[in-house]
Each structure stands twice: as C-alpha cells, then as structure tokens.
Amino acid sequence: MTAAGRQRREAVRRQAAGLFEQKIKPLEVAQRLRGSWKSAYQWHQLWRDGGVRALASRGPGGSRCRLSQRCLEKLAACLEQGPAAHGWAEDQVWTAARVATLIGRKFHVSYSVSGATRLMHRIGFSPQVPARRVAERDEQAVTVWKEATWAEVKEHGRPAEGTSASRTRQASPAGRPKDAPGAGAAAPRS
C-alpha cells in the first residue's frame, strides 16, 4: 500500500474513534464512513480496549527486508554490472533465481525466487525470462528455410465459392427403406 493509502486509512480510523466517543454505534459509523460493518466492529473493539492509540496504524505488514539500505544499493550496483560480471556468461538476463543466488553469494542471506522477484521490483528492476534455444541452432539455416521451403509448404486452400455448408437433420423413420438398419426399431405412429 502506498503512503497516501496508509494516510487515508489512518484518517478514517481517527474519524471512527471520534464517532465512537460520541456514543455512535458501529453500524452507523460504518454507514457514515462508507466502510464495512465488520471493520467498524473491529475498530470499536480496539477503541474500547485501548482508545484512539489502539486504532493507529502499525506500519506496513509482512516481514522486514533482510538487507540493509546499504546492501540494497550494493545489490542494485551489482545488477547494473550485468550477469556476465557475476559468472553468468551465457546470456545477459537477470532471472529471479540468479538474483537469489547472487544475494546469497554477496550478502550471505537466503532469498526464495519469489522473494528475490519482490526485492528486484522494490529496487527498480524486473526479472527476465531467458529465451530457451538449442545450442546447436543454426540461425542462417533457419532463415534460408523460412524464405525458401516455408513459401512452398504454405499453399492456399480451396477457393470458398466452390463449397457449401448446411445443417443436416436426421431423416424420419417413416422415410427409411424397410430393409435399412434400425428400420424396425421405431415404427411410425398411427
């Protein structure tokens, strides 16, 4: 949540505390503040137990970052250098798994792949997915094949005016020949 969102939520809670002090019921507080009745009852319980201070925000949820601000700056500098500078020479792509490995090597802190992804977004980077290609791929041969062979293989279908389409419907049992399969199964109604 953004800082502005936290400030709005804090202001609503202060308003709720003011209304509770005026002996207004939680359902009416929810209506006035355009909030849910469940939230209003929770706020009322907190206010009753601890006053206005109990409604104050405790800050953003979740666990704290295990890297200091200085370490985050160092990590950003490492990411700027590129993967080749840190031992990944096959391509110039920072994957989340590589960043998690880099964090472990440089800072001796273990991060999951999803945690490394969130950390990268936090410092302004995004993980990339490497293109999976066969090592023996011959780009020149692929280009020649696309230009010559594909043009021959890709031929046009039949012209549309020579075909027709219509719904079919099952013939009535009365119209079947007497010796046709299933002809005796359904006798016509009389």
How is this structure best summarized?
With 190 residues, this protein is mainly α. The protein has helices spanning 3-21, 26-32, 37-50, 69-81, 96-107, 113-122, 139-147, 149-153.
Keywords:
single chain; 190 residues; mainly alpha; 8 helices
Describe the structure.
The protein has 190 residues and is an all-alpha fold. The protein is 47% helix and 0% strand. It contains eight helices and no strands. It has helices spanning 3-21, 26-32, 37-50, 69-81, 96-107, 113-122, 139-147, 149-153. It is flat and about 90 Å long.
Q: Care to count the β-strands? A: 0
Shape: flat
- Helix tally equals 8
- What is the gyration radius calculated from CA atoms? 35 Å
Proportion in β-strands: under 5%
Q: Which structural class matches the secondary elements?
A: mainly alpha
Layout of helices and strands, plus pairs?
Blueprint: H1 3-21, H2 26-32, H3 37-50, H4 69-81, H5 96-107, H6 113-122, H7 139-147, H8 149-153
